[in-house]
Amino acid sequence: MAKFLSDTELQSINSWITKLERGGRRSYAETDVIEALRLRYKLMGTGKHRLVFDMGNGYVLKVARKKSGITCNRNEVVLYEQAPRSLQQYLCEIVDYGDGWLIMPNMQRTVHRRKHAKKLAKIWKRFLKFGVNIHDVLRKNNRMIRAGNVRLKNKKELVIIDYGNWHIERNSG
Ligand SMILES: Nc1ncnc2c1ncn2[C@@H]1O[C@H](COP(=O)(O)OP(=O)(O)OP(=O)(O)O)[C@@H](O)[C@H]1O
Ligand SMILES: [Mg+2]
């Protein structure tokens, strides 16, 4: 496997994750996390659980910003590795990972939140049949895509970029 992170980068991520695992605070301001990590990458996305950095090489690095983010990243890896091919095709590829972090291709093509919703609802149902509820990809009775979590792979095909919350309750912080 290609090496995506340097030893120094791994070390600073690891010590941040260790801090979270040991308890840490319930949540941290974005700037505190960025300062603790001291990565050379630009922040490109923020979620409730993770910070997403643009590695500048076509990939993004997702790092837990609080304890639940570690679980999200682990969930994402487990689902990606255990999903059958027929479902894995809808999940953004994970090219490398460790405790509390993972690396994915940077997906830039945004979806049409309403036009693509039907297609995504079908995909969501297929995951339900598999026993996994990727609940936060849709909203408003499945008529709208939660755009932050889904991208277009090409002109037509959807790819889910946030599939780490499938066991976490909708309103958990
Ligand atoms: N593979 C990717 N390519 C491009 N942008 C991404 C990718 N993964 C995540 N992002 C960006 O980073 C944001 C946060 O990532 P993600 O949704 O995975 O974090 P989260 O903490 O699980 O979010 P949430 O608040 O939805 O639970 C996304 O909304 C998106 O804008
Ligand atoms: Mg998200």
UniProtKB/TrEMBL annotation:
Source organism superkingdom: Bacteria
Descriptive protein name: Serine/threonine protein kinase
Source organism of the structure: Paenibacillus xerothermodurans
